[in-house]
Amino acid sequence: MLTNASHLKGLVIRATDGEIGTVDQFYFDDDTWAIRYLTVETGGWLGGRRVLISPFSVVHAGWEANRMDVALTKKQVENSPDIDTHWPVSRQREAQYLGYYGYPKYWGGPYLWGTAFYPAGMAISTTASTEALADKIRSESTDSHLRSSEAVTGYRIAAANGEIGHVDGFLMDDEVWAIRYIEVATRNWWPGKKVLVSPAWVIRVSWTNSKVYVGLSRKAIKSGPEYAESMPVTREYENRLYLHYGLPPYWVQEAGHQPIPPLEGRINSERRIN
């Protein structure tokens, strides 16, 4: 189901033996645009400490009840590795975190979650040996594709022939935990209009310039189907969106369980869609 990612903010995370805290923001992978972690404010329970919760642990998301159940105990969360969420999370810190919980490496395969399309499709180990964890950390690169949703919100959208607006939010698929669309506010050019852009059309995300570069023209984006948060994003709307840009939808690729192609191969930056 497609859900506006803003609904994650304030969502109560409930462990098997009580509440952990509330979601503040999330980290996504700008290579595959999968949501890798939720940042959870634990309040007075852990002295204000922030912790990361992986979609691997999610059992049920009750959007109407504003609650998410996870297959963790409060003790597990309390003893989890400290990660400073005010700074970029390195691949080595991720390896330590995943090793602690016995989760597999999502970057260890060709699909969105490594060897599977869904977090639920991954085999979860109940224990992780200290030696195996140490070996894993030593072998990991410090490079990371993780980006904070809070940081990227507000980034300017750079089309093929100039700026077109800014990132105003995200639409996520709560089954595969992937960002399906970037919500683009174009009010500086066309007051009040918002449009959706697929991450598959993104060429790159620049920290230094605070920009998201897409291989689409301003004209194409301007004339795209309008989006309003109050309306549900139906398959009919998605079909109109992809038909407008003349690009294949994500569900065609995923129906065949094909590997995720490299970022630069998803849209030819020399072939600007106009």
Question: Would you write up a description of this structure?
Answer:
The strands form 2 sheets. Strands 1, 9, 10, 11, 12, 13 and 14 form a 7-stranded mixed sheet that branches. Strands 2, 3, 4, 5, 6, 7 and 8 form a 7-stranded mixed sheet that branches. Residues 126-130, 262-266 and 268-272 have low confidence and may be disordered. The relative contact order is 0.13. The radius of gyration is 19 Å and the shape is globular. The protein is α+β, with helices and mostly antiparallel strands. The protein has 2 domains: 2-147, SH3 type barrels; 153-266, Photosynthetic Reaction Center, subunit H, domain 2 (Photosynthetic Reaction Center, Chain H, domain 2). The protein is built from 8 helices and 14 strands. α2 (91-101) runs antiparallel to α3 (130-139).
Q: How is the secondary structure organized here?
A:
Layout: E1 2-4, E2 12-15, E3 18-29, E4 35-41, E5 50-53, E6 58-62, E7 67-70, H1 74-78, H2 91-101, H3 130-139, E8 146-148, H4 149-152, E9 156-159, E10 162-173, E11 178-185, E12 194-197, E13 202-206, E14 211-214, H5 218-222, H6 235-245, H7 250-255, H8 263-266
Parallel strand pairs: 2-7, 9-14
Antiparallel strand pairs: 1-10, 2-3, 3-4, 3-8, 4-5, 6-7, 9-10, 10-11, 11-12, 13-14
Helix pairs in contact: 2-3
